[in-house]
Amino acid sequence: MSEDDAGEPAPHFLGHRDRLRTRLREQGGEGLQDYELLELLLFQLRPRIDTKPIAKELLARFGSVAEVLAAPRQRLMEVSGVGESVADGLKLSHAVALRFARDGVKGRDTLGSWQAVLDYCRTAMAFEEREQFRILFLDKKNRLIADEKQQTGTVDHTPVYPREVLRRALELSATALVLCHNHPSGDPTPSQADIAMTRTIVDVAKPLGIVVHDHIILARGGHASFRALKLI
């Protein structure tokens, strides 16, 4: 058995970690299980300990890699082995994933890149524990001008003010919108309040020459498109 500089036996997990890194280099992330990806990420943050138990506990608590990265800092820190620096690292990873997804939307016709739009919205919102209302503001070529979170509400309600939505669209010279919000319950089915609010925004936008392309509801269980459901 190899020993460290002090003559102590090397920690048992180092060989396992080296094997994971070799698989990452040779096969990419697809060659690793979820807990192994988290384990390697956590190793960068806690290099002197076995991070497999922390990775498995995070997945047991939150359900998936995406949900771990999107989880609130304070909830992450309820897991043994996750302190301020580890929580910072996990939130940084989520920010990088969000930026990557958003860059897949920027500068492109959003209607021709709809899967990228869905991927971005899912990364940004699907696993939030409180409702959020987000708007993608588009130009005449349906390219993204701005992406803004308008409101954050409770676990089952977000206040939305249609005239404020349209005021901001006019400020940005946007000619089209994609509305997005999340359902922390996990069920993306639109509520009657969602439908009424969306139709009000559509009605106020139309005389201003602004088109509402869709309203997407994101949830852990998938997504719902008002356009696909023929609700707008």
Give a concise summary.
By secondary structure, this protein is an alpha+beta fold.
What is the CATH topology assignment of the largest domain?
Cytidine Deaminase, domain 2
How many domain regions? 2
Total helical elements: 9
The CATH superfamily of the largest domain turns out to be Cytidine Deaminase, domain 2
Query: Largest beta sheet: what is the strand line-up?
Result: 2-1-3-4-5
Number of strands: 5
Structural class category: alpha+beta
Strand content: 15-25%
Span of the ends, CA to CA? 67 Å
Would you list the SSEs in sequence order as H and E?
HHHHHHHEEHEHEE
> Percent helix among the residues?
40-55%
The biggest sheet, with number of strands, parallel, antiparallel or mixed sense and barrel status, is: 5 strands, mixed
Instruction: Give the overall shape.
Output: elongated
Unreliable segments (pLDDT under 50, ≥5 consecutive)?
Answer: 1-5
In the CATH classification, which architecture of the largest domain applies? Answer: 3-Layer(aba) Sandwich
